[in-house]
Amino acid sequence: MTRLIDDLVDALEPAPVRPALAVFGAPLALASLLPLAVVAFVYGLRPDMGTAMAGPVFWVKLAVPGIVAAGAGIALARLSRPGAPPGPGLAIAILAMLGLLAAGLIGLALLPGELRVPALMGPSLQKCLVSISVFGVPFLAAGFWAMRRLAPVQPRLAGFALGLVAGGLAAAVYALSCGEDALAFIASWYQLGMLIVASAGALIAPRLLRW
Amino acid sequence: MTGEADAKLRALMVLAQSGDRTAYRSVLDISRAQLAAYFRYRLREDPASADDLIQETLIAIHTKRASYDARHPFMPWLYAIARYKLIDHYRRHRVRRTEPEEAAGEIADETDDTRAAMARLDLETLLARLPSGQAEAIRRTKLDGHSISETAAAMNISESLVKVNVHRGLKAAASLVGLKQVDRP
């Protein structure tokens, strides 16, 4: 045992503490290039961008995933360090999602009956779900790569938080191209897409984050 | 552990993170004493595993030393790592308890017990059950035939840590396949 401590002391090199934003920021930014390129060159930005930007829904589509990603990011920073108190991050993310869900339901209730189903089942439903899930992959990969250098002691929860960050970022990028403007659509399918990515994160985290 | 004592450890750990070996040795010595009490109490029936876990946790403190943030107290960081290692141990132990028993009947039928056990041993499956640092050190030094110094450079860790990882990993692997049971018929 003393021998081990001697070895470890010999092996000591400075190990500066880097804030979570520094650890995750660059890899996630790099990862965003892929989905951004798909939106820019394959899907194209939504053609009615000018009018959309004047209305509130376009901004909700950016803000809610953004808040979810930020809240989950705060949780992720805590979950990457042993013994740090969990903090309010996940609660913020979940409240934002529940808030949007409530707004979507109210919006649906206020519509005349025959318009409810078309509002919910927009034409790009499938594309939305697939895109958000697939856009989440590079964010997940970059996040896991970064997190392996930290020390998550609750890998499943850390993977879920990372998945929410990835799903939130993926949804925000997809919103730049998506032409759906019903809150009920955003509340259901955007959020389902984000949850798919978060579940994937929670599912694979224990394998990837062993140390 | 009082707040004052934790504050002292916190300061020592910050020095250690900047490369101060004397401070680092104090951190490890104090941690070792804390971990010894923690694991020996929880694994009263299994003092050998308790000792293994003390060592594994000390190595984890070393490899993950940058994950300590001095804005938070030191002891919760140490115990969170210890607890993580304990849970990991329980998980691996559960696997070990069931598998050799199922295999025991088949192995008894073979003429050469050891060879039969070796034939069953899927090396990669076994390595996958070790902590990744240990598995990688073993893979590079023992399977791919790289030297200690090449491995240290490739893994970006010191040579002594490579040796520690290989040693710890082989020991853990041996206990995973129940090698002791094969040695003593």
Question: How would you sum up this structure, described in words?
Answer:
The complex is a heterodimer of chains A (211) and B (185). Chain A has 211 residues and is mostly helical. Chain A has nine helices and no strands. In chain A, α5 (89-110) packs antiparallel against α9. The longest helix of chain A is centred in the C-terminal third of the chain and has 26 residues, at 183-208. Chain A is elongated and about 75 Å long. Chain B is an all-alpha fold. Chain B has two domains: 3-124, no CATH class; 130-176. Helices cover 79% and strands 0% of the residues of chain B. Chain B contains ten helices and no strands. In chain B, α7 (132-143) runs antiparallel to α8. Chain B is globular. Chain B starts with a helix and ends with a helix. The chains are: A mainly alpha (211), B mainly alpha (185).
Unreliable stretches of chain B, pLDDT < 50, 5 or more residues? 101-110, 180-185
Distance between the termini of chain B: 47 Å
Percentage beta strand of chain B: under 5%
How many helices of chain B? The count is 10
Give the topology, please.
The complex is a heterodimer of chains A (211) and B (185).
Chain A: H1 2-10, H2 20-43, H3 49-54, H4 56-79, H5 89-110, H6 113-120, H7 125-147, H8 155-175, H9 183-208
Helix pairs in contact in A: 2-7, 2-8, 4-5, 4-8, 5-9, 7-8, 7-9, 8-9
Chain B: H1 3-17, H2 21-42, H3 47-63, H4 74-109, H5 113-120, H6 123-128, H7 132-143, H8 148-155, H9 159-176, H10 179-183
